[in-house]
Amino acid sequence: MQKDIFDRIIGFLLGASWAIVLFGALLTFKIFIVFGFSFSLFLTFLFIFFSLFMILALDAFSINRKRLQESKKHTQLLEKLCEKQSAE
Asked: Any residues with CB less than 8 A from the CB of 31 and at least 6 apart, and which?
């Protein structure tokens, strides 16, 4: 099954986002460790929290795109049924 360019871009962005979350959390922790462990841990969790919302937004784009494609298929089927109904 072939994917269109939109699905490929979303897939790439989702993979890159997970990498950014992992490396960004590590980097955030290491940068702010000089201010204390608890502060560093808090900022790391805050970074992860906001990053996961961005991943959810990308996933929502993908889901809405699939829903739109299914709706288009249903519309085409309903139009065909209406044509057959009106022809009789």
From this structure: none
Handedness of CA 74, 77, 78, 79 (dihedral sign): positive
Condensed to tens digits (0 to 9), the pLDDT of residues 42-79 reads: 999 999 999 999 899 889 988 998 899 999 999 999 99
How many domains is the chain partitioned into structurally?
1
- HSE-up of residue 59 (Cα within 13 Å, Cβ side): 9
Q: What does the alpha-carbon distance between residue 47 and residue 13 come to, in Å, rounded to a whole number?
A: 18
Domain span including residue 23: 5-87
How far is Cα 82 from Cα 46, in angstroms, rounded to an integer? 53
